[in-house]
Amino acid sequence: MDRMPVHKKVFGLILAESPFFWFKSQIMLHASMVQ
C-alpha cells in the first residue's frame, strides 16, 4: 500500500484550508477588539 498520495492529499488539504483559518482568526480577532 503506497501512502505517499494520501500524505500529499492531506498536506494539500491543509494548505488549501489554511487561508480560511487565517481569515477566520483575523475576523475573530477584529470582532474581539471591536466589542
What can you tell me about this protein's structure?
The chain is mostly helical. The chain is built from one helix and no strands. The longest helix has 31 residues.
Properties at a glance:
mainly alpha, 1 helix
SS strand fraction: under 5%
Largest sheet features: none
The average pLDDT is 82
Which structural class best describes the helix and strand composition? mainly alpha
How far is the N terminus from the C terminus?
52 Å
What does the radius of gyration come to? 15 Å
Multimeric organization:
single chain
Outline: rod-shaped
Helix content: over 70%
**Count of alpha and pi helical runs:** 1
Poorly predicted regions: none
H-E string: H
Count the beta strands: 0
Short description:
The protein is an all-alpha fold and 35 residues long. The protein contains 1 helix and no strands. The chain has one helix spanning 4-34.
What is the element layout, followed by pairings?
Layout lengths: L3 H31 L1
